[in-house]
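Incident log, support desk, overnight shift.

02:14 A customer reports that sequence design results differ from what the structure should imply. Their input is reproduced verbatim below. On-call engineer (initials T.W.) acknowledged and began investigating.
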């Protein structure tokens, strides 16, 4: 199952158990509902690789891929608030930056790179 769009926002993203799912947006993908999926799931934000397009989890939302592969490509990862979580259990979680940007763990946001801040790492 593949869904594409310019900006994608939950709950327009539907989850169907057991299906390998792929979501692609030219810019942002925003999750405003928590989801648990039982199949591999792939999110591609900024599919046009122009450096604009984040994968956004609103405050309090969680995305759990139960022991399945979770793959996210985006210009930036934005886990908002203090209780948004991303989990893939024992599955492989892959996070890649689009547009040949660098991926930075820790530190503060900087132009031209995907930054996952310390607080996002520990959420
Ligand atoms: Ca884009």
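02:41 Re-run completed on a clean worker. Output:
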């Amino acid at each position: 199952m593949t869904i594409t769009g310019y900006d994608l926002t939950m709950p327009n993203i539907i989850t169907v158990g057991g299906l390998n799912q792929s979501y692609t947006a030219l810019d942002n993908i925003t999750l405003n509902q928590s989801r648990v999926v039982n199949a591999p799931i792939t999110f591609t934000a900024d599919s046009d690789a122009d450096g604009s397009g984040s994968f956004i989890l609103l405050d309090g939302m969680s995305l759990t891929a139960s022991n399945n592969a979770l793959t996210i490509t985006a210009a930036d990862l934005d886990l908002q608030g203090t209780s948004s979580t991303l989990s893939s259990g024992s599955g492989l979680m892959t996070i890649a930056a689009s547009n040949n940007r660098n991926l930075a763990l820790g530190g503060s946001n900087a132009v031209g790179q995907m930054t996952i801040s310390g607080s996002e790492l520990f959420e």
